[in-house]
Amino acid sequence: MLSGAGLGDKVLLPNQTEYTARLGSYWSVSAALSPWCMVLPSTAENVSTIIKTLVSGNCTFGVKGGGHGSFALSNSVEDGIASILPGGPWQEVYETLAPHGVTVTGGRAGSVGVGGFLTGGGNSFHAASHGMACDTVVNFEVVLADGSIVNANAEQHADLWVALKGGSANLGLVTRFDLNVIKFPDATKPDIWGKFIAFDLADGDSVIDAMVNFTEHAHLDQNTSSIMFFGHVPAVGGMVLQLGLENTKGIADPPAAAGYLTAGKILSTTSSVVPMPDLVRSENPAQPAGVRNIWFTLTTANDPRILKYAAARHTAAVAKLSAALPPGNFTTMCAFQPLNHIIAQHGVANGGNVMGLDYWMQDGDGAARDGMLLLFEVGVYGGVEDEGKADVVVKAWAEEVERYAEELGVGWGWRYLNYAGREQDPLGTVGPVALGRLCRAARRYDPEGVFQRLRGSGFKIPEGACV
Ligand SMILES: Cc1cc2nc3c(=O)[nH]c(=O)nc-3n(C[C@H](O)[C@H](O)[C@H](O)COP(=O)(O)OP(=O)(O)OC[C@H]3O[C@@H](n4cnc5c(N)ncnc54)[C@H](O)[C@@H]3O)c2cc1C
User: Fold this and answer.
1) How far apart are CA 323 and CA 348, in angstroms?
2) Angle between helical axes of 90-97 and 276-283 (0-180°, round to 10)
3) Ligand 1 within 6 A of 63 CB?
4) Bridge pairing between strands 137-143 and 102-103
5) What is the DSSP letter of 427?
6) Domain residues of the chain, as ranges?
């Protein structure tokens, strides 16, 4: 069918070496399904021919960008065709831009793909200064379900532009992203500061308190960001508590980070002002490719009780995983990331999106409120059976924390699409305004529901939400 459409040289079949090599390019083994064939377009016109051919043959398909989706059916299909869209990882983008003294809001690990990251939102070092990465997209070139190629920006197809900012692959296949660039203070030095601290686990509570305080004040220094995580990492001897700090202006130890430095006993630390491509390259090993993965995400108010409880339940989950899986066969991450209200304000100022953060970041009186993004991640070195056992544990851990947050009245229903687990239905959590925008755009640009009906991968618009 695709060969008949003139795409024979772009199609890979299961008996071909390159097909097998492409299967190996999925970050998570859980997601590396074996479709009937893969097709690798190199132009928007190729993508247009592919979508027309698939629709005319009523053929199911999956869509892969950089391949960092964690679960089975996040970016491929077993029965059907996987279309692998153009666009490399963020590493290549940063390396291309750095000699020009500029950068863009992209992934914090260089290996992450551009396509999924930007259509799903994109939390970056620049989130507090520029909003989610999708908010810096000024134009999407997109192939619609009928094969037409359109540009979506503030002037043309503005409703599609807004809906693609967080709408994932529900409206079309993006073949080009035009982003606002961000200048480094010195064009000859594309540097940012990165600090990495390993704390004594016994000081977990006070490091959490420092993060809650940091989050509350993050709008005052929008260039400094932080991520902390508790993790079970057998390669470094078991349980760890680690913090990453960055400053996008290349300022080492900015005042905004000071609270962390006295929050606990520091076991080891590194600190450097380096070109941004070097820093993001160094982030890759923290989440290695080639293992099975289970992710769950939650969001809550910026409340230390939740973080402390989540960390305690993480310890319990590690004990359960140790009992269920062979020794050394899994890693975990219980990660916390500040969500200062300024992030949503940037999104609104940049024309709006369908992420829904602006909905969650205000209380009933319209006052801004800060939140915390939680990510529970387990990597499994075993087979699908071990993945199933781990899945039960992670799900229970996430449910416990969710229940506790609800009891305290500080749970947010929002689930960040780029971190969501298979069953978390992130687009069902964006609130009525964002969902309305998404539905209207889907009705207008995909009236036959191709991306709901034939696309077998990724997160869909919740069934029945658009009536
Ligand atoms: C190591 C690692 C680090 C990460 N770091 C961050 C981070 O710093 N911040 C953050 O916010 N997230 C981060 N993530 C999550 C990441 O944003 C998501 O996994 C994202 O989906 C990755 O995009 P991808 O193109 O690589 O993935 P894929 O699995 O290929 O794609 C994900 C989804 O996007 C859709 N898609 C991909 N390309 C296109 C396109 N061109 N047009 C339309 N739809 C498309 C696919 O259909 C698929 O459903 C990280 C993930 C990993 C594994």
Assistant:
1) 47
2) 160
3) yes
4) unpaired
5) G
6) 3-84, 90-184, 191-427
Shortest-distance atom of ligand 1 to CA 284: 1
Q: For position 236, what pLDDT does the model report?
A: 84
Check pocket membership of 337 for ligand 1, CB cut-off 6 A: no
Does the beta carbon of 74 sit less than 6 angstroms from any atom of ligand 1? yes
The pLDDT assigned to 372 comes to 98
Q: How many CA atoms lie within 13 A of 111 on its CB side?
A: 16
Query: From atom 15 of ligand 1, which residue's Cα is the shortest distance away?
Result: 418
**Same fold flag, 90-184 and 191-427:** no
CA of 418 to the centre of ligand 1 (A): 6
Distance 391 CA to ligand 1 centre (A): 21
CA distances (Å), origin 147, targets 54, 81, 315 = 10, 17, 50
Q: Is 123 in the pocket of ligand 1 (CB under 6 A)?
A: yes
Question: Residue 71, class by beta-carbon neighbours within 10 Å (0-12 exposed, 13-18 middle, 19+ buried)?
Answer: buried
Tokens for 102, please give them.
């500029």
Q: For domain 191-427, is the CATH number 3.40.462.20?
A: yes
pLDDT score recorded for residue 87? 67
pLDDT single digits (tens) 371-399: 999 999 999 998 999 999 999 999 999 99
3-84 CATH, one of 3.30.43.10, 3.30.1360.120, 3.30.420.40, 3.30.710.10: 3.30.43.10
pTM over 0.85: yes
At 295 the three-state DSSP class reads: strand
For atom 6 of ligand 1, which residue has the closest CA? 107
The Cα-based distances of 416 to 121, 206, 267, 330, 420 in angstroms read: 8, 26, 32, 24, 6
Segments of the chain scoring below 70 in pLDDT: 83, 86-87, 284
Taking CA atoms only, the protein residue closest to ligand 1 atom 50 is: 112
Please tell me the CATH code under which domain 90-184 is placed.
Answer: 3.30.465.10
